[in-house]
Amino acid sequence: MTAPTAATRIGDLTRPVRGRLWAGTALAFIASAAGLLPYAAIAEIAALLLDGNGSQAWAWAFIGAAGVAVRLGLGVTAALITHYADADLQRHLRLRLARHAASVPLGWFGGRGSGELKKAVDDDVEDMHHLVAHASLDIAGALGLPLAAIAYLAAVDWRMTLVTLALLPIATYTIQRAHRTLPDRMAELTAAQLRINNAVIEYVDGIQVVKAYGRRGRRYRRFAEAVDDFGDTLARWTAEAGRAMFASLAILSPAAVLLVVAGTGTGMIAAGWLAPVDLLPFLLVGVGLPAPYMTLLQSTQLLRKAQNAAAHVGQVLAVPPLPAPAAARTPQAFDLAFEDVSFAYDDDAPVLRGVSARCPAGSTTALVGPSGSGKTTLVRLIPRFFDPDAGTVRIGGTDVRDLDPATLLRSVAIVFQDVTLIRDTIRENLRLGDPDASDADVEAAARAAHLHEAILALPDGYDTVVEAHGGALSGGQRQRLTIARALLQDAPIVLLDEATAHIDPENEAAVRASLARLTEGRTVIVIAHRLHTITEADQILVLDSGRVAESGTHERLLAADGAYARAWRSQHGTETDR
Ligand SMILES: Nc1ncnc2c1ncn2[C@@H]1O[C@H](COP(=O)(O)OP(=O)(O)OP(=O)(O)O)[C@@H](O)[C@H]1O
């Protein structure tokens, strides 16, 4: 498959409003061409008056006035058409991006994805305004008047026509030279903007932790660096764009045009090649010619920005959706199996290398291993945050890729530390676990998660609005809210980050009790950091560099005296048993 070019991407994105864009462009072309009429009328009236034929001047006065009316009327209509088209396209693209976001792998949002999506939906769609609402009108405007002028002026004197129009290619060349580095600067600016978006999300995500430790830390530094970097890039862009604009303004100013046309024209009159009255159209029309061209030039920067924005929207829309099964199946049982599973993020080194394991229905499997050994990644493959590059993950014997995606997500409750809330009431946040749950069900889940009393103590109880990052809720309350949500989901498979259970020591007992309710009788995979919490697990998988280094029960692993036993001893002194 060949990569789509920028032009095909823009063509694809603007397809829904293409007809209206063409209509607006055609009207803008006619409006621009009609802009010649007032200038031509003045020149003709002057010629008639000089010839003593003043009585015919009225007809030209009427033509000139009609030209002004057509130019204004069609110009405004064209702009209205494209602006309405832009409003519709913005809505269409935002919905299309949102629909696409729903189809891409969930894991994409954990990497650069959130920042990319935010930029596409917020900034890029808005930046495309110029492309849709103005660019084609500007181009039509810059063509209509010169073409009409060529036809009119050539009828007066072709040599002077060439002189008058010669400025345009000279100006184009000069200006293009001045603009040639701008696309690179623009690409830098876009990249810097993306870095800020990602750094903002990362910083805001971590703000609780940052505040809790009273330190600004690495995330803040990355955020500050991104802001500085953006400032420097913007300054470079502004300097170069300013120089380019100055060159354009100087060469296309009415004074420059007047100088060339009047100078050459006077010479030609002196040489007897041109009648003095015939210089008038060139002076009048020549001075009016650069105006639409200037608009076009001034719009090139915005156009480039809009093209970059469109290209980025195209890239986000090109993120491959998670393949959906042709004939979706429903899991009949809830045991889990990993068969020779390998996985790498993007083009990085493999994070999982040939992992095989079985987790019987209703059993608890603990994943342990050094940081970065792939525990979280392995767990993410179950609800298809990503699909493995090789091997298979099965639920009840069925490849998860063959399961109906919605059923799969409903069957798996995820209780991780980084599960965020949505900006809505506590009740609706809980109801995410089961959209059909009654208020009584919601309250029962909150009670089971030891959260009910705390919710009632809030100003609006269950109707208190929480922010995406918790807002009024304490860390422990947020944890219990995610647990209550998972309880409501009543999923047969529970994926748990053990860190969730002990981050808030005050509430540890309550959190533990609610977790016990959540995991009872389910197939559970728990990512464990403190080994004493998982000694009862039915099996423990020890991951090391993406491989299963050891597996077995706590006792068997201690007896085997391998990596697990060493980790146990380092956490619990020299005891050999719990
Ligand atoms: N979204 C991602 N994009 C790229 N690389 C990632 C992503 N998530 C994790 N990684 C990398 O994959 C490797 C395994 O990470 P993973 O989070 O699975 O390990 P872990 O064993 O759960 O670690 P920890 O105990 O620190 O949470 C790490 O090198 C990590 O940097």
TrEMBL record:
Residues 22-305 form the ABC transmembrane type-1 domain. Pfam families: ABC_membrane (PF00664), ABC_tran (PF00005). InterPro entries: AAA+_ATPase, ABC1_TM_dom, ABC1_TM_sf, ABC_transporter-like_ATP-bd, ABC_transporter-like_CS, P-loop_NTPase, Type_1_exporter. Its main location: membrane. It comes from the Bacteria. GO terms for molecular function: ATP binding. Residues 336-570 form the ABC transporter domain. SMART domains: AAA. It is found in: Cell membrane. It is a multi-pass membrane protein. The chain crosses the membrane at residues 21-42, 57-81, 131-155, 246-273, 279-297. PANTHER family: ATP-BINDING CASSETTE SUB-FAMILY B, ATP-BINDING CASSETTE SUB-FAMILY B MEMBER 6. This is ABC transporter ATP-binding protein. It comes from Glycomyces niveus.
